[in-house]
Structure to design on (600 residues):
């Protein structure tokens, strides 16, 4: 089934204890699309400036990523982010954030995308997520991400969004913040009460968890000895998760379990190298092989 | 097979966001024995002062815990610990630490315990752990715990210990500290290089991991909505783990996987109530029931 993503396209500069990657391609929509395209065709909505040094058609060549929703604005600049990961690779500092084109009017959903069934609204202002969602005719399964600044500053908008989506994909600390609850399970239950029927909590190297009204599933992260650059891990996770669901066309709990296992596997490839190199260097067989390994590593 | 534990017996005062438990029974050997006794008879070695307000024979009544190795010193005082857990229940502050009898000569291993096959050396000075281990004739499987102060201050002793044991059971931060390595998988591999054939890393609410030279296994924590008092979680985990291994009399990797799943389950009961109440209120059927639930929550 058709899968649509709206999110950022970024020029990133990333420093980690293992090296530096200057002015590389990043952004939630890019990582998401690359990850999802292993499973399902993807429709991308995003906006860049004319300064963007990357040809996205070239980046996604040979992959089923529809760029009809990519807008290039002549007099605007592309979103730029620079960050440094610490020795404890779970911690990072933002060195520079230039919203540029992301601070302007958001891109429109092209007419050809309006029949999309699986939707991922990557992290941005919840009012914009709602505005984008309203342009889709009759979606089957809508997932969204959010972050601390929207929870703290735009909670009413966020709650309106939560009533319109099926699945919130959120980091552990942000889930606890949103629910004002320190226990993660209680936090997830409290978020379910606001609206979505499924909450997926990303716990970084501690794995992830799915909660619905009457079922739960917990999965560790893939135990990776090689972590070079965690940028894009969460969006790759979401990409593989939604990509798998769109591929099988189901969203029952058993399918969700498979989906977060694929999300976990694909994210583990993302973090093994800088920028998109961890994803562009693998194929579906690599993913399926590691999926089997993950099952072996976790089943008793 | 016979299971022996050496560790502390404590009078604890614990404050958590959910209440206060003053002068309650605690200590690594106590939590370990209570947890292990669901699976296997336990031989306890520990020492208390004449001020100890608890009758351990009464505490363990009806459980197969041999107290021949319990020493009560007339002119000594029992170890006392007081701590406060924060709203984020993973963080705690030690309010008071009175070593008392633990700062004296350690207890001896009774002659009747010398043929013990499964051994757990709870956290204490590694020189004392070695001294206790030397009194066992021919152990089959020796596991030990340690903590930051021994890694920082007694590393040579600790390395001598690691060459004599089969399994180190250690917290995540301490594993990274011991190996001087931020990546947990690399840290575990580095510890294996020092001596033990198995490393079990406890990650608190993020679960646990087993690493041997050629196999790994990762398991999330039980997703618990009720956490009242995390004291004793690690020792209960170790108790059920070693108790299960002693019960089945095997230490192959498949048995280790089952063992940490039982450890995870029993620890989840420990933290649901203060002091030992989470363990004294359950039976083996409760454990087996939650073991099945844990499998359902983690298998895909």
């Amino acid at each position: 089934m058709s899968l649509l993503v709206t999110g950022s396209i970024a020029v990133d500069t990333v420093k980690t204890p293992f090296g530096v990657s200057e002015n590389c391609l990043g952004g939630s929509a890019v990582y998401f699309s690359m990850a999802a395209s292993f499973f399902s065709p993807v429709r991308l909505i995003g906006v860049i400036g004319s300064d963007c040094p990357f040809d996205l058609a070239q980046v996604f060549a040979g992959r089923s990523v529809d760029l009809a929703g990519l807008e290039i604005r002549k007099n605007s600049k592309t979103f730029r982010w620079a960050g440094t990961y610490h020795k404890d690779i779970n911690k990072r500092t933002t060195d520079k954030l230039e919203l540029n084109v992301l601070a302007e009017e958001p891109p429109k959903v092209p007419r050809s995308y309006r029949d999309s069934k699986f939707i991922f609204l990557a992290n941005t202002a919840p009012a914009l997520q709602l505005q984008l969602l309203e342009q889709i005719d009759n979606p089957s399964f809508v997932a969204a991400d959010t972050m601390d600044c929207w929870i703290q500053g735009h909670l009413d908008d966020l709650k309106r969004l939560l009533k319109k989506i099926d699945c919130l994909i959120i980091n552990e600390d942000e889930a606890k913040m949103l629910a004002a609850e320190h226990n993660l399970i209680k936090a997830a239950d409290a978020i379910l009460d606001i609206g979505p029927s499924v909450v997926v909590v990303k716990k970084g190297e501690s794995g992830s968890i799915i909660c619905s009204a009457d079922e739960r599933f917990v999965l560790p992260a893939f135990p990776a000895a090689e972590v070079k650059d965690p940028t894009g891990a969460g969006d790759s996770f979401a990409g593989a998760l939604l990509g798998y669901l769109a591929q099988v066309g189901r969203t029952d709990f058993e399918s969700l379990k498979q989906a977060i296992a694929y999300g976990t596997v694909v994210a583990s490839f993302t973090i093994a190298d800088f920028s998109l190199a961890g994803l562009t260097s693998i194929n579906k067989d690599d993913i399926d092989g590691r999926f089997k390994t993950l099952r072996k590593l976790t089943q008793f």
About this structure: Chain B touches chain A at residues 17, 87-89, 182-186, 189, 203, 205-207, 209, 216-221, 223-225, 227, 257-258, 261, 295, 297-300 (CB under 8 Å).
